[in-house]
Design a protein that fits this description.
Blueprint: E1 4-5, E2 17-18, E3 29-31, E4 34-36, E5 41-42, H1 49-52, H2 59-71, E6 76-78, H3 91-102, H4 107-111, E7 114-119, H5 128-142, E8 147-152, H6 161-176, E9 180-186, H7 190-202, E10 207-213, H8 221-233, E11 236-240, H9 261-269, H10 274-287, H11 291-301, E12 304-306, H12 313-320, H13 329-340
Parallel strand pairs: 5-6, 6-7, 7-8, 8-9, 9-10, 10-11, 11-12
Antiparallel strand pairs: 1-2, 3-4
Helix pairs in contact: 2-3, 2-12, 5-6, 7-8, 10-11, 10-13
Pfam families: Aldo_ket_red
Organism: Tetradesmus obliquus
Keywords: Oxidoreductase
Length: about 350
């Protein structure tokens, strides 16, 4: 469907703002009661100066990034109450709330946008009420009446089992009080995922999603087991870092590295992933797509909802090119085999449980 709308901020008054889905309606994913796009947008970088170089003067372009992906049909945005560094903590949630309010498209589209936020297992959050308070803080920052998907950012089971009990019950309380429409977890391993799902069921709450690091460089036995458990439980796997922090964009080499911590990591990993980078480049060339688009599409073909980030319009538009088509089973198998031949892989998040 097409909507002729006013121009978005920063565009010329003569241009038209058009909502044009980049994928077919039947490609949407059922996440609990929510109908979401096959790809979302991760907003870890929005407010993070240390790793991603965020500056407040980027906000105008970030609004355009938001407008562009929403107009293309993307309707799920992942954030967290901890996103942002220093005084900018919570900045990502604030920006998403602002961008929703200022989106120049139709009210129907705006009302179908879903914010998926995560509540950090900070050491001082030791009671269920602390998680309820955290959720209310996210609601204040976003300006929303309800969070579409409330998630536990990581598990405390390995080091503070009593706190873990409080986290579970606090999130269930959020659901029962109508503060969140659906509940999910992040960085939970296969065993802990089954356990938390059983405990939520005892409260009459169904787990809707599990979010883990998942890409061609992080799809080993542990992540495959999580995907199998998610499928068995009937919940959606949300794939964060589908481009492995940018390593799978095809933009970097040992002679061209990003600044900061990512540069040091990429320098270590790039020599060992040559089989995969070659395979990605070959598939991209045959498909007339970019390496990034192939890597994201692989995640979609694996039955996950990837949430690549975007700091500017060029990245947002490139990510959107991953929608509306699918790799063949042969191409997926070729990429799987290439990934298996790599001598390097992404280290899993230290907070991920077994």
């Amino acid at each position: 469907m097409f909507f002729q709308l006013r121009a978005p901020p920063g565009s010329s008054s003569s241009s038209k703002f058009v909502e044009r889905p980049a994928f077919n309606k039947r490609e949407t994913v059922q996440l609990g009661s929510l109908e979401v796009s096959p790809m979302g947008l991760g907003t870890w970088a929005w407010g993070n100066q240390l790793l991603w170089g965020y500056q407040p003067d980027m906000d105008g372009e970030l609004q355009e990034v938001f407008n562009t992906v929403v107009a293309a049909g993307v309707n799920i945005f992942d954030t967290a109450d901890s996103y942002g560094t220093g005084a900018l903590n919570g900045r990502s949630e604030q920006l998403l709330g602002q961008f929703i309010r200022e989106y120049p498209g139709s009210e129907k589209t705006r009302s179908n946008l879903h914010i998926a936020t995560k509540f950090a297992a900070y050491p001082w959050r030791v009671t269920p009420g602390n998680i309820v308070a955290a959720c209310k803080g996210s609601l204040r920052r976003t300006g929303l009446e309800q969070i579409s998907l409330g998630q536990l950012h990581w598990s405390a089971a390995k080091y503070a089992p009593l706190q873990e009990w409080a986290l579970w019950n606090g999130l269930a309380d959020c659901y029962e009080q109508g503060l969140v429409a659906e509940v999910g977890v992040s960085n939970y391993g296969a065993k802990e995922l089954r356990r938390v799902a059983r405990d939520f069921e005892k409260r009459g709450v169904q787990l809707a999603s599990a979010q883990v690091q998942y890409s061609l460089l992080s799809a080993g036995p542990a992540q495959s087991s999580i995907k199998a458990v998610a499928d068995d439980l009937g919940i959606v796997l949300i794939a964060y870092s589908p481009l492995a922090l940018g390593l799978l964009t095809g933009k970097y080499s040992t002679d061209n590295l990003p600044k900061g911590p990512r540069g040091s990591l990429f320098k270590q990993l790039l020599p060992g992933i040559a089989p995969l980078t070659a395979a990605l480049a070959a598939v991209a060339a045959s498909r007339r797509k970019t390496v990034s688009q192939v890597a994201i599409n692989w995640c979609i073909c694996k039955g996950t909802v990837p949430i690549p980030g975007a700091k500017d319009l060029a990245q947002a538009r490139e990510n959107l090119g991953a929608l509306g088509w699918r790799l063949s089973s042969g191409e997926v198998a070729e990429l799987d085999a290439a990934a298996a031949r790599c001598s390097s892989s992404m280290v899993q998040n230290i907070f991920q449980t077994s």
